[in-house]
Amino acid sequence: MTNTEDVVTAGFGGDEAMDREEYERLLAMYDSSFRNITEGDVIEGTVLKVSSAEVIVDVGYKSEGIISIAEFLDENGQVTVQPGDAVDVLLERTEDRDGHIVLSREKAEKMKIWDDVEKAYAERRVVIGRVIERIKGGLAVDIGVRAFLPGSQIDVRPVRNLDALKGQELRMRVIKANKKRGNIVLSRKVLIEEENAEKKKNTLATIAEGKVMPGVVKNITDYGAFIDLGGIDGLLHVTDMSWGRAQHPSELFKVNDDVEVIILKYDAATERVSLGYKQLHADPWSSASERYPVGQRISGKVVSLTDYGAFVELEPGVEGLIHVSEMSWSKRVKHPSKVLTIGDTVESMVLGVDPEARRISLGLKQIESNPWHNLAERYPIGARISGKVRNLTEFGAFVEVEEGIDGLIHVSDMSWSKRLAHPSDVLKKGDDVEAMVLNIDPDNQRLSLGLKQLTTDIWDDFFANNKVGDIVEGKVVRVTNFGAFVELSEGIEGLIHVSEFDAGQGDSETEIAVDSTIKMRIIKLSPTERKIGLSVRALKSDDYESNWQNYATSESPEVTLGDHFKHRRS
């Protein structure tokens, strides 16, 4: 390579060589055009050529710079420059191994952005960035260069789902910038707080109880929704959202919904605001009595089931209760779910309306005829019916006569003679049994049945075949301090009072022992009370026959033999 001096001399020709001083002056001018360009400077250049792999840029230096085509591609991969375009580039090195200067457009752009960031930080200006991804502690944001938005600086309230912000453009403020370390920290919270403070000032100047104001749903909880009224939040409780049923506020509102609310209460000291939404609409209960008169048939949707009944929505804000006892005339409904399902459309009858208590009583069974009202026609008193023993209690047995219709056989109507300790002594659950209809009470839904009424009354037979004075034989079954009970026949017992024991043995009870068989005389019969008076003493008295005959003919025929002996002792 020739030196500079040779080139300059050759340009003028050998005979016309310039003098030494002129050469030095021109050489100094040529060199000075490069001395103001130093590594790290951002300078303006001109695009000379664009190829598929590189862009050649002239920055006025003694050689051109070559930059990778990748630094000139947009998001779609299209080249953004053409020959003649002016571009800003960063001078990285004045010369590489091939004699070219090393330039970078990308780094020049970042240098310019850093200048803008530092200026925005110093002047507290707003910057706009796009969320790139979620990283540890917050978000990575592109503001031309990569910056960090801490999770605590995203909003005035904690943000649970940071991933949902990916791709969104946010307005922020630079709260820290360190160019040397390449560290930029942003805050959206600071900006929101400042904006809210101004809004809040304007809102507080106009807020008043009873005023209707626009707002935006900012947050939803289990108990209500927080509404942004403009720099200040008010609570719209779930009970003030709707006149009707709301299981959760999210059924009625969503975050960022625009909504009009009324100020129910405002505490200036604490800046707490209670809001209402349903109050902007007429209370449907105020005219419920007129719309739902007692006895009217109505349709509604089952919205809830409890142990005691089903709630039916008649219209938004108005529900009625079908109590479990009003679901069937005859079926034993253990739980409403056995009859109804949530979502069912059901027809029922209005039984009662209480607007003040906000209650409507409905009946499901009332839309059908009551089977108890014509039960007497199907089962008249005295009729024989068959059924299955459904349940046993201490006082009797319940027999299912037909589906949903049970009759009670009381323990006292199970046997004419036996003293039953429990109905299970006669019947077992599941037994098929025949009984007689004794009584029907449709209003109280009671059917009385009898088992013993299907057989002859053994007491009637005994009283018909025996009279006072007859001698009978029986087995002693019980001995008490006042006498002995003797079984005269199966189910028939009489009493020997201690005063009617054997006269020859005094009042001793030892001669009359349990399980012993003895003879006695009937001294009293009481059919109405089903009582029989017996006497051993009367049987063994020698003058009994004559005394009794004389006494019987002189006294009332209704007098008993016992009365006769009492008369004699007196």
Task: Summarize the helices and strands and which ones pair or pack.
Blueprint: H1 4-12, H2 20-35, E1 42-50, E2 54-58, E3 65-68, E4 86-93, E5 101-104, H3 105-123, E6 126-135, E7 138-142, E8 146-150, E9 169-178, E10 183-187, H4 189-204, E11 212-220, E12 224-228, E13 233-237, E14 258-267, E15 272-276, H5 288-291, E16 297-305, E17 309-315, E18 318-323, E19 345-354, E20 359-363, H6 375-378, E21 384-392, E22 396-402, E23 405-410, E24 432-441, E25 446-450, H7 458-465, E26 471-480, E27 483-489, E28 492-497, E29 517-526, E30 531-535, H8 537-540, H9 544-554, H10 561-569
Task: Walk me through what this model shows.
The protein is of the alpha+beta class. It folds into 7 domains: 1-32; 36-106, Beta Barrel (OB fold (Dihydrolipoamide Acetyltransferase, E2P)), CATH 2.40.50.140; 124-192, Beta Barrel (OB fold (Dihydrolipoamide Acetyltransferase, E2P)); 206-280, OB fold (Dihydrolipoamide Acetyltransferase, E2P), CATH 2.40.50; 284-367, Nucleic acid-binding proteins (OB fold (Dihydrolipoamide Acetyltransferase, E2P)); 375-454, OB fold (Dihydrolipoamide Acetyltransferase, E2P) (Beta Barrel), CATH 2.40.50; 458-569, Nucleic acid-binding proteins (OB fold (Dihydrolipoamide Acetyltransferase, E2P)), CATH 2.40.50. It contains 10 helices and 30 strands. It has helices at 4-12, 20-35, 105-123, 189-204, 288-291, 375-378, 458-465, 537-540, 544-554, 561-569, and strands spanning 42-50, 54-58, 65-68, 86-93, 101-104, 126-135, 138-142, 146-150, 169-178, 183-187, 212-220, 224-228, 233-237, 258-267, 272-276, 297-305, 309-315, 318-323, 345-354, 359-363, 384-392, 396-402, 405-410, 432-441, 446-450, 471-480, 483-489, 492-497, 517-526, 531-535. Strands 1-2-3-5-4 form a 5-stranded mixed barrel. A hairpin with a 7-residue loop joins β4 and β5 (101-104). The longest helix is centred in the N-terminal third of the chain and has 19 residues, at 105-123. It is rod-shaped, with a radius of gyration of 56 Å. Mean pLDDT is 81; it is low at 1-16, 505-510 and 551-570.
